[in-house]
């Protein structure tokens, strides 16, 4: 029955009518992993370019016998919201489900596979791979969770003086010191003040606490903006290709059209504004009302860091074309090369003389990334500038429907934007922890990049920032044919083979979008440093064997 | 400009085409607070019955001069998603914005109003009104936030032995003990196991961890189900009237139709299945595909607790009519009367012999409610039964797009479903804290109920459960005329006057829906007990003066 259902949802997807928008990039019919076998015309839909998770049953419920008869229950696969079917999210897709299955196998029988553990390089989740949290941040969180111990003598023995002081400060900022109360819909005002002081220190331009919306990670903030901007499939959002699939998923769920622009792999995933303009014009000529431009800087999955001059062009482009600039800046603290530096788009825009009423700009930040990598805390914020009061009121209403984001995440967002300062008791240990993580990540990025570049048919741009490498693999025709014969995208085929042989989980490039006919995978740089040599060696051995097997 | 924008959004709302579905309840044209002045025909739309927050500018940004010129920015009020405009959320609407303004006034000048503080009775937010968190829960959360102190001697001096033990258990359930990592999209498996043991202890029927989706409070779970079920405005969701506005807001945001059924105030907000059936048939005759029935038990805003026999009828009704039963059970631990008891719908369905493949049932639970009232932690879950594997896969995908809910909230959800047991060091202090809160809430409910019933023209059903009273106020015609003259719903007019006179914030009944021509407000029972007499006295004085002023 499962197989039947999968076929049915696949056919539903295939038959769903879509808006046809052709693309003018020289190599540019963006298509799905399936369309490799069943090519769509160049005028195919923008959204259909990810590997079809919907068509691949995933996350089975262990308890449900696959032969259970659900025919008398009311919800059928062809009676759910088709936007849900349409939505795809490869970083937790089929490959991760296979990995979880293998992990279960290993639990039962440690010799069941040619490796002793699964290494999840599919997602930027540092602490899952052994990274330790920053002590100061956790001390403050614990004290805010249980303020009753703040006054106890023992507390001074096990917490730093400045974490105790900071916890008192934070409690004073919370009405009634109630860390268990819903906050203001945008987040606790005092914490937004602290975040703004951090933004001001970073940018050298003023920030306003009324512009901050604290959210459970960056994802809900992205959804909120898509929800606000997208009215129908005639509304388009310009997104980089490759892109982080949150964007394609969110656009699909809100029923809009993803308008792709290509990052140029040959120039280190460069963003060429003239190409973006071409894509914009093509979309407009097809009747698409393009509302916004998404820029991910540092890049995900691509790891590049934009030059300030390039950012200025992007700002001018959005200004001139009447686009909202949605700036995904969650990797702002993950920079690994001395010749690059992070500049927020707000700083760039303000430096160019554009003020509040000149450009509509949203900056997304998260506590999941950075050197702290506190993914599980689900903290984040968006800074919203250049929207008229009546639009802001609608944003406030949307935030209110979910009441508020979690308070621990709010507190943590304030901490990462305002960490210990010179003179604070924790300052030295804090900077030591931070610098150790960042310098280790830089070394890991370089080691993995070099290893990948040494493989036959693999080229890999450097990770200037973020947490990923996105190597391109030139697969032999025989491998492509083999993938075809099992109805899988060639890079998904490669990733699956890699997982089965090594236990290393990566995400096929088709999950992010890529120039048709090219194949990639995304691999995080996050395994602990002492594990990297073994990973490199496993990867190298696998790749060699794979190429030997399929060499034309 | 603000005023202009408000008028514009109001006119946009008024002109937006909607599906017309007439109702057959004897008193049943559900309409909005505005339609009181400008009555809609009986065939009016289901969604248009809340006081129009969208039309009332709220949450102004302090920093934005109201005369700033945003004309060159791209997003206009008539170019945003009309579903966002449509959505309303009264519990954080206009009246709360006024309250926040008054609070600012008091900060600047404590004598600026005839009261010295704002008492927020608009929302079930116990800790904001001074309720203390349950010690055991907070101890465990603090230890999980900062596990580095678990082994230290001082920790035993300031934490209970069972909180330390529980923290160790929880850490052992988290892969790599990484409380800072993204978890499985449905939440940490071990915590879902614990939650299931709590559900089993409650219901006496098995629960499956694969059926649990941990979420940031109950709201995202409700949104997920609406997103899954609603394809277009032709899809309807049966909701009680009065209802908690999360439902109307979520249905509006997902573009569906709210199909109302009325709770009968005369029988203590009774739910009459024959009436629900009538509404269902009417909606179907208008071409609405009704997908689900929402039941809130204990009731919000109405406070009634359903009898088991009534629940059985509801289960049979959903089974026979092919409806998903969406059971909002977040107040399951808030029962204040000895003659009523909470039964989960799953227990009721299983007791009737209905198994996994017989009925589609979703139960929503939250850590925000109960006696613990941990609203700010944003923990919750839904238990999903009776959906075919291919539908569950789509739910898993939706959960994956946001990666996971916050880990502290996940941990807390496991704690509230599995609190200390007899023999645990914390057991006595825990039960003392719990029982003190619950018995105090029961006394407060009774005191406020009696006080309200003693007022001229006010009748108030008892709060059997939940956190609210929802008194009906018979307003004099002169008051209704006065409200009309300032273009406000009469109950909103009353609530505004109450706030201005007493500092007490309540939500007008028009924010929840009510039988046309009746007026109510929702008031929480949450102010601390020693404050209740003063609140009763202020309320009584205000009401008397109001009635004297407007008596016909």
Say what oligomer this is: homodimer
Poorly predicted tracts of residues of chain A: 1-6, 12-65
- Give the CATH class of the domain at 182-416 in chain A: Alpha Beta
CATH superfamily of the domain at 182-416 in chain A: Type I PLP-dependent aspartate aminotransferase-like (Major domain)
Total beta strands of chain A = 14
CATH architecture of the domain at 182-416 in chain A: 3-Layer(aba) Sandwich
Largest interface: A-B, 127 and 127 residues
Span between N and C termini of chain A? 38 Å
Overall spatial form of chain A: globular
Strand content of the residues of chain A, in percent?
A: 5-15%
Pairing-aware structural class of the strands and helices of chain A? Answer: alpha/beta
Structure, explained:
By secondary structure, chain A is of the alpha/beta class. Among the domains of chain A are: 92-130 and 440-550, Aspartate Aminotransferase, domain 1 (Alpha-Beta Complex), CATH 3.90.1150.10; 182-416, Type I PLP-dependent aspartate aminotransferase-like (Major domain) (Aspartate Aminotransferase, domain 2), CATH 3.40.640.10. Helices cover 41% and strands 11% of the residues of chain A. Chain A is built from 18 helices and 14 strands. In chain A, the strands form four sheets. Chain A has a seven-stranded mixed beta sheet, sandwiched between helices. Chain A has a three-stranded antiparallel beta sheet with strand order 10-14-13, with helices on one face. The longest helix of chain A has 27 residues, at 427-453. Chain A is globular and about 70 Å long. The two termini of chain A are 38 Å apart. The model of chain A is unreliable at 1-6 and 12-65 (pLDDT under 50). At the A-B interface, helix 1, helix 2, helix 4, helix 5 and helix 8 of A face helix 1, helix 2, helix 4, helix 5 and helix 8 of B.
């Amino acid at each position: 029955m499962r197989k039947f259902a999968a076929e049915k949802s696949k056919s539903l997807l295939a038959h769903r009518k879509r808006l046809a928008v052709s693309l003018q990039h020289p190599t540019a019919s963006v298509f799905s992993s399936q369309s490799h076998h069943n090519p769509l015309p160049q005028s195919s839909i923008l959204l259909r370019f990810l590997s079809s998770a919907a068509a691949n049953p995933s996350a089975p419920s262990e308890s449900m016998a696959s032969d259970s008869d659900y025919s008398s229950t009311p919800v059928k696969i062809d009676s759910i919201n088709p936007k849900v079917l349409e939505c795809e999210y490869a970083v937790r897709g089929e490959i991760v489900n296979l990995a979880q299955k293998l992990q279960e196998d290993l639990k039962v029988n440690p010799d069941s596979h040619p490796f002793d553990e699964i290494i999840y390089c599919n997602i930027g989740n540092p602490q899952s791979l052994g990274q330790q949290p920053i002590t100061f941040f956790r001390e403050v969180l614990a004290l805010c969770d249980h303020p009753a111990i703040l006054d106890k003598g023992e507390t001074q023995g096990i917490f730093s003086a400045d974490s105790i002081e900071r916890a008192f400060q934070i409690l004073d900022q919370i009405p009634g010191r109630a860390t268990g109360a819903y906050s203001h819909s945008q987040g606790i005002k005092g914490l937004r003040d602290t975040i703004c002081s951090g933004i001001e220190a970073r940018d050298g331009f003023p920030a306003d606490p009324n512009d901050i919306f604290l959210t459970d990670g960056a994802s809900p903030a992205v959804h909120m903006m898509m929800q606000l901007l997208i009215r129908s499939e005639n509304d388009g959002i310009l997104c980089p290709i490759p892109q982080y699939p949150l964007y394609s998923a969110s656009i699909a769920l809100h029923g809009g059209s993803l308008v792709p622009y290509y990052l140029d792999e040959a120039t280190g995933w460069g963003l060429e504004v003239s190409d973006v303009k071409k894509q914009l014009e093509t979309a407009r000529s097809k009747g698409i009302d393009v509302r916004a431009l998404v820029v991910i800087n540092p890049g995900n999955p691509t790891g590049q860091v934009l030059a300030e001059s390039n950012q200025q062009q992007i700002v001018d482009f959005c200004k001139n074309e009447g686009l909202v600039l949605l700036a995904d800046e969650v990797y702002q603290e993950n920079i690994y090369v001395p010749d690059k530096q992070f500049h927020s788009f707000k700083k760039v825009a303000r430096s160019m003389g554009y003020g509040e009423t000149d450009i509509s700009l949203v900056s997304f930040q998260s506590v999941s990334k950075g050197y702290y990598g506190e993914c599980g805390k689900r903290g984040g914020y968006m800074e919203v500038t250049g929207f008229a009061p009546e639009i802001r009121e609608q944003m406030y209403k949307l935030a209110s429907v979910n009441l508020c984001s979690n308070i621990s995440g709010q507190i943590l967002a304030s901490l990462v934007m305002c960490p210990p300062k010179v003179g604070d008791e924790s300052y030295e240990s804090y900077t030591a922890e931070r610098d150790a993580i960042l310098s280790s990540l830089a070394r890991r990025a370089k080691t993995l990049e070099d290893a990948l570049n040494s493989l036959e048919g693999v080229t890999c741009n450097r990770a200037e920032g973020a947490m990923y490498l996105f190597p391109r693999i030139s697969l032999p025709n025989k491998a492509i044919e083999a993938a075809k014969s099992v109805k899988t995208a060639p890079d998904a085929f490669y990733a699956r083979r890699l997982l089965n042989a090594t236990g290393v989980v990566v995400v096929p490039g088709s999950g992010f979008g890529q120039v048709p006919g090219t194949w990639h995978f995304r691999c995080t740089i996050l395994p602990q440093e002492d594990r990297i040599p073994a990973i490199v060696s496993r990867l190298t051995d696998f790749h060699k064997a794979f190429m030997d097997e399929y060499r034309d």
